Amino acid sequence: MSTETLLNLSSNSLFIAFILLLIAILPIGLAVKSKRKMFGKVGLLLTYSAFTLQLVYFILRWIAVDHAPVSNMYEFMTFFGIMLTGSYLIIHLLYKQIVVGLFTIPVSLIILGYGSVFTKEVSPLVPSLQSHWLTIHVMTVAFSSAILSISFATGIIYLLRTLDVTKKSISTFALEFVMYCLIVVIGFIGVSTYFNLTSDTVKVHFENSQGKEETADYTMMPLIVNDAALTTDGEQIGVLQITNKVDAKKLNSIVWAFLVGTILYVVLILIARRPLIVLLKPLTNRVQPALMDEITYRAVVIGFPLFALGGLLFAMIWAQIAWSRYWGWDPKEVWALITFLFYAAFLHFRLSKGWEGEKTAWLAIIGFGIIVFNQVFVNLVIAGLHSYA
């Protein structure tokens, strides 16, 4: 079977899995509101089927590219989304809480959708990636991040169940802001898809931070460019010019995401005439807060040591092989350390200070924010050795 055929089959498997997960939200939502077990069974059947197809995608793409498909943003975010689906199924086997899927699956879909906006093209690995430690390091980080993300979903559920979302407070404002951030990601997916389908690529020439001529292919309308950037025709472009130490093309994508995401959020609020957290709260009426708190804690207990292995230990071994040093204070390495220290503090406060309930939920949400910042913003905007991703 040819490489092209394998890649097409893998992409089709992933697309069908995405549709099945999207459909699964409906019966799972009905299962949360109804006492009939049939809805939950249908939702789980769809989720298991989708996860199986996701694994088919992963295996077929691995065979096609002849290395673990986790070497760029598309492959990593896709694998992250797959592992989040798998993590939910594991948690459901342990705790039988279908409501966790109602909040986990949409996050998984957002991650998969986010990954889909990046190029799916197969290219040869750069020398630093030609190592088995790439597979071990990145897959462990993705799996551990997915398990830690479960604590984000259960933290959201706990807060929706326990907070009086009809009253204005710092907690309700912060929780609504989390909803806004998720809408921003959806906005990014939408605007990226729109520009990819309707606009031609714009080539922008500029000098990078090393003073060398570089060309960036903008798929989105260039609002932000680097200093002295010009088009192929020699014309100035962009609304704002920034330092060449920052990847303007990727920052441009983030600005578009916030613009479109904010508009989408405002439209939703105007239609609903109430905050999103008020709309979501009824879905948690049958939830046991203590059980959600327990799942949040257990997810961190499992995910934290795995992240320590993948994000630090395995990463340092790979760094020594690739760059002849275990640690170099690259932005990605720094934020991996910050993530490790945060979750170490999480467990410390939980075990020694008795931080339970609402405090645990907020720590889980902040931790997920750090993971997303590390995997998205650091990769896309801050220049470093991991910028190839």
UniProtKB/TrEMBL annotation:
Location of this chain's protein in the cell: Membrane
Keyword Membrane carried by entry: yes
Organism domain of life: Bacteria
Keyword line: Cytochrome c-type biogenesis, Membrane, Transmembrane, Transmembrane helix
Membrane topology: Multi-pass membrane protein
Transmembrane segments annotated in the record for this chain: 12-32, 44-64, 76-95, 100-118, 138-160, 172-195, 254-276, 297-321, 333-349, 361-385
Coiled-coil positions: none
Domain Cytochrome c assembly protein: 70-183, 258-386
Pfam families: Cytochrom_C_asm
PANTHER family cross-referenced by the UniProt entry: CYTOCHROME B_B6 PROTEIN-RELATED (PTHR30071:SF1), HEME EXPORTER PROTEIN C (PTHR30071)
Protein name: C-type cytochrome biogenesis protein CcsB
